[in-house]
Amino acid sequence: MGWRGNMVKLQLDIMRSIAHMSSQRGANFIMQQNILDAFQTMWGPFPEPVMLIQKDRTILAVNDLARTAGVPAGVKCFSLNPEEGKTNCTRCKANVALREQRTVCTEEMQNGKRIIGYWMPLKEEKEVYVHFGIGCAEAMGVQAGIKATCAEELVQL
Fold it and tell me: Using one digit for the tens of pLDDT, what is the confidence trace for 68-127?
């Protein structure tokens, strides 16, 4: 199976996982393919790692840079954090963002780099949010040429 087949299989697995979780909770939550498509359209080329995450912290989709950095869909987001043994990150603001249905932003230093973190709930799906941090790519060392390209484009403007 080629990479396209693997991507389709991964998306189908995610959709099945969401449907299974929904039936277990008795909720009417069904992730629409158009939301996954919209996520990729909007966030795919974004020059920072971005994740689409469900309330239970399952990563539903990742953008191009997150995928390049090795962030997998289908796992709990906190499993990517070096704070071992945790079921939630100490700095996570997802609960606040979902409860208040508003974007929550934080600022901190990580690996000597300034990071501005965002948790943005979707209007259409109240238990799903977009999470990213401005400065994460640089702190993770995965920015590979993106910063230079953006700077060149700004100079041209």
Answer: 989 999 999 998 887 656 777 888 999 999 999 999 999 988 778 888 999 999 988 889
Q: 10 Å Cβ neighbour count for 91?
A: 12
Q: Cα separation of 62 and 55, whole Å? A: 15
CA distance 21 to 16: 9
Query: At 9, is the pLDDT very low, low, confident or very high (cuts 50, 70, 90)?
Result: low
The CATH architecture to which 32-156 belongs is 2-Layer Sandwich (3.30)
Amino acid 19: pLDDT: 57
Handedness of CA 42, 126, 74, 32 (dihedral sign): negative
Among candidate residues 151, 145, 140, 149, the one with its CA nearest the CA of residue 66? 140
- Backbone angle region of 111, left / alpha / beta, with phi > 0 → left and psi within -120 to 50 → alpha: left
Query: 3-state class of 86 per DSSP?
Result: coil
For residue 109, list its beta bridge partners: 114
Q: Where are the domains of the chain?
A: 32-156
